[in-house]
Amino acid sequence: MKKVNYLFILFAVISASIVLFISLQSANKEEVSREIGMKAGKFYVAKEILPDHSLYPLLMVVDRIRLELSDSERRTYLMVAYNNRRLFYSKRLLEKGNLGLAFITLSKANKYINQALEESIVLLEKSSINKKQDYQVLGFFVLENLDKHLSFMAEHKNQFVNADQAVLDNLSVESLSLADKLRRLMSQSN
Fold this sequence. Notes:
Elements: H1 2-36, H2 56-68, H3 72-96, H4 99-125, H5 129-156, H6 162-189
């Protein structure tokens, strides 16, 4: 397992170096392209890397690798964390006026919370007696974060066009259905 971790770290460092080099090159090209009126990708220095940043794809690759290398319980916690991060990104993108990317990011957040709900359901359905309590704690954690997610959606959904609102509503209905199923399983486990 340690060998896999070292390989992962080496891969991440090499990938980050390549992406940073390419980003710096594209930042230089952006300055030149502004002078001739062409639009280029965005490279900026900030505490967080938003989806409109040129390094964001690297962050997504790292997220995907972390998910793939995790067991089901850890993966569920990661999906909740990714949901929360994307809610934050959506808010920042809305503040910047980038509604299209904010919608995509918010819908991806919803897909992550739905996956976390599904994973919690599967874990509870297949759990042994000694793991049931751990998975119930995980279920409560996911449901608590779902409540935050749905509050965020309700607060910000009116900023999107009707078609996007309909998509967000459908994702929310799916979330509520999964949450009901998870709550039923949790109550049966008591």
